[in-house]
Amino acid sequence: MLISARVAARHWLQRRVRQTTQAHARSRPRETILLAGVNAVSELFLQSVREIAFDQIDVAGILAEDAVLRGRTVQQRPILGTINDLHKVLGSLRVHGVAVDRIVVATAADRLSPNSLHTLLEVEKNSDIALQFLSERLGFDDSPRQSSAFSECERAINNGQQALALKREPNHLNVASNPFWFRKRIVDCLAAAVLVIVFAPVIALVGLLVALDVGFPAVFWQKRPGLCGRPFRILKFRTMHAPYDNLARRLSDEQRLSAVGRFLRRTRLDELPQLYNILVGHMSFVGPRPLLPCDQSPEFAARLGVRPGITGWAQINGGRIVTARDKAILDIWYISNASFMLDLRIVLRTVQMILFGDRCNINAIAEARTHLEQLAGIRLMPSEIAIPAE
Question: In this structure, which topology does domain 2-146 adopt according to CATH?
Fold first, then answer.
């Protein structure tokens, strides 16, 4: 009798939810969230979602602070793992086609362990997943947590838009009115479409090697500032193993990098998925290399005036050898002097760089620094590199 009553009650509840959803269907898509924390607040949140926002929010699962709770349920929502397992949980959901839009934390920030808080902030920084603490939203936290690194960097990029707008004046870069960039976009689309077909077997083979080496998913993304600072997801083949070993010990980047990953990075084959970024308009073949939000300085926001590229003037004249500041100066020089012949030269030099490695060109850096000093009417600090020109 108890089992029959439970089945009938659940059937009645699901039927009511379906009827109400059909009657109050909304045009905006449902938001998928992860709930972090198992306590009275998390139960109240789940109950609120069921009563108020059942047609707006889909709770994909719960993250507990204690590994003992893994596999249990809270109001019919599964506990997928601990907060420290967040990367693994997101990867598992992504394999099943579930993209998390927001992580709601039901535990106050000062009550989380340092590792758990670091994991949450790291995910917020390196992805487009929003992080929300219920204690702050409810106004109970007298000393709100400091804004995450990504939020600070995003504000820096937004502030940099003012500098970018100044650079677009007729006496400066004048990117917006230059027809070259429109024609370049057409060439990028055609070339990317052809290369996707030509390199389809190579892409499939590399994807298979990555899956066998580091597992699924074979492709990962990072959030980077693109044209005019708008964020986009840059795609790459995975070259690293999971950040933690079987004993939950954090591994260094050198330990995580596999032999296959080193080969893919050395030959730049890990960047083949970026052909998709080019097709959809996020990137170009040649342009300033997209940086992490925290590495994009507002001082050089002018490099955000064009689509970022797979390769660029900075990559063939220094690559990983020169400083980030000199790379930005080289990128601004490219934007000022861009042409199809220069793009062709960069592509050919990129092939040379892949075969023989990064080389520093002191003369190109000095020319770019002089150009920027004349353009902006300022005096730059001396370059930090002292490597002979190749």
Answer: Rossmann fold (3.40.50)
